[in-house]
Description:
Elements: H1 3-25, H2 33-53, H3 68-85, H4 91-105, H5 115-118, H6 120-123
Helix pairs in contact: 1-2, 2-3, 3-4
Amino acid sequence: MKAKQIKILSNIFYILGIICAILLFTHNTHGFFTAIRIGFYVFGGAGLVLSLLQFTFITEDKWEDFNLLFWIGSLVVFIGFVAKTTHLKYATHILIVGLAITGISYFVNPFKKDKTDEDELLDN
């Protein structure tokens, strides 16, 4: 599969996972609580794995766009939501840590090149 196909499939899984999460957290499961919860786990987890997998198919030039810290934060947020659905004691703390990592990822990207590399053209 190409990266674009994996991205489309990942987005579909994310949308289905979000729909299941909304149904779970608004208590609109209409008697299908277990099936919707399993759907949330499967679609959310598959979306996360596929989003990471798509970056194995990209070229070296685009690695700058990938932020591993954002993906790790998203994974911790997902684990927090899974903990929330199972009513674990520290689920809120896990969510806060995951959201903090995701927020920090907007300021820090380990793959992004320094801006000094781009200034070399002006120095010539």
